[in-house]
Amino acid sequence: MGFVGRRLVEMLVERGAERVVAFDIAPKPADAGDDPRIVWMQGDLTKPEDVLRACEGSECVWHIAALVGPYHPLDMYMRVNYDGTVNVIDACKSLGIRKIVMSSSPSTRFHGGDINGAKESELTYPKRFLQAYAESKAKGEEACMAACDGETLLTVAVAPHQVYGPRDFLFLHNFLLNADRLRVFGPGTNLVSVCYVDNYCHGLILGERALYPNSPCLRKFYICTDGEPVNLWRFIDRAITAILPSKTSLFAKFKLPGWSFMYPLGRLCECVGYVTGKKLKLNTFSVRMLLINRYFDPSESKRDLGYEPIVAPEEAWAKTEDWFKREWVPKYAAER
User: How many angstroms separate the CA atoms of 172 and 263, rounded?
Assistant: First the structure.
């Protein structure tokens, strides 16, 4: 189970949930403990019978499962992110479950250029999606929002942007692993919104509370952030130099030209991958995401969900750094 799912399960129990079903294709995490309020259930989101079994007896489904990253077979994105969402919708209708909080992604609204403080309602689906993940996620979100009838099934989509925190093996982890060869792309001044995992899970929980007939949140898309945007490369550099202090700061190395060098190189890697049948980590989407501004004005989530970050940026960073130093660094050092 991903680190957002793990933390959401924990926070639901912390806030008084009597029974939480954690449904995932992977088995129960080895360090998950044995809280009797948590039911760890292994199954496949693409199998309707598994989803039905997981949803039985629930009052709300937080649908946060997704196939992410650019390295999977193309047909799998639609199977998991769209067909899987339809399975969740069908299960809720069959079992009379009235609420679905869907975890979405701002990437469903990426057109390719800078996003400078846009509100959620100002973000639209592009005519052409930048990646298969975004397209399949958008299709799933559309289906989930369309299923909302205002009475028997109520739905809302809540997304983070660049979520991070303890147990993060998606964002910070990858930069840490590549700290030696990593360089700043372009001038290194681009700004992004980030969201600490507890803040995002808080937003997801608020999404459930906002699901009632005639709620202003029905069928809408919201974004949760930590507040003010951060300089992406300074944020990454802080992680590297704090968690791995022996590593050189990114800003002490030469920078790589962004649009004139790294972007064409990403295109070349895509061509090589197409010919060889391999998925290379460098591609035009990843380069673009490291060059553009991606920050948002989440005033609508504050207005409609009552969202405010519950963990301040410095506290969030301290908790993240502590976990990586305590849990991740020893394993990283042992494998070197």
Answer: 22
